[in-house]
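Project standup — Tuesday

K.O.: blocked on the structure for the chain from last sprint. Re-posting the sequence here as requested.
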Amino acid sequence: MTKIHRKLLKSIPDVRAVNLDTSYGFQLNVLQMSEKLEEYFSTSLHIAMTTLHFAAYERASDIERALFKQGVRDASFVFAGPGSPTYALAQWAPLRFGEDLLSVLNRGGTLCISSAASLTLGGYTAPIYEVYKVGDLSPRWRDGLDVLGSFGLNCAVIPHFDNAEGRNYDTRFCYLGEPRLLELERQLPDGAATLGVDEHTAVIFDFESDRLRVEGRSNGYWRLGNASLTLENGQSYPLNDLRNATRAPRSDELHSQPSDRDPLIQLAEVAASNTEERAVALARLVQLASSAKDESIEPAPLIDGLLRARQDLREQGLFELADRLRSLLVDNGVDVQDTPSGVTWSLIHKS
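H.V.: unblocked you, prediction finished:
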């Protein structure tokens, strides 16, 4: 991202750069983190950056809080990055910190907010640490600083959109994985979108021209309901393209009448994914499919989906997991036969 940082800094006549350590202020290596960031800006960008230390609202005096806010307002380039978005919010929200960030923009300064800290910029913030590190299975949005909302962009920001660190399990969407992202998106009020940003990618808002441009390795995304606008790398867009985006119904709103098959389809989607919940979903689907007695639950598409998932595992070389899936099917009353012409199956009806 050095090229992008250099371009941003070049547009600032008088660079007064500060780093905010709040998002990682709970870590024991907070000083080393700050030194590493300062060294990067000094060595790679030839910019002297000062870290404004503000680790905990409750432990700070009124004077320290005021000095931190004033230090931000006096800066022309404000950087914040790694850590926990909800921890940062807990310290910044009582300061009404969104107003300080807006003050920087209103004076022609630049905010360079990345990684965890970027999740605080929208009206809604996902609890990444609570989901990925602690294990919150029913995540709920936190109120964000809503800096983007001041410009008519009602959204939640999700960085690391194409993260692939999990390799054989789903760490996309800032480690949420698809099932949890979809669950959180269902909780968004009407008109609220998700702004996704791929890794090593910048979505740069120029509020004077009322446009954005995308630079770096990949793309950005504006998701509203089931509609998704890809913000392509190297392209520029008027912000009204986002403000006026048409909302498509979310997938759980496509059926006007409740259907007993909806939760099964959702289970099948999880079972076919690479998420940690896959095994539980697979087992539940096999039980439901093999015990189907009436037309309200049609086992055929479900079992076909499971067998496709098994084939995917085999193609990935995950033979042990594929064999375990076949055993699950067989143990729950589904006779699976691998033949030269393909896989066949039938239900075993026990007397």
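K.O.: great, moving the ticket to review. The mean pLDDT is 85. The two ends are 65 Å apart (CA to CA).
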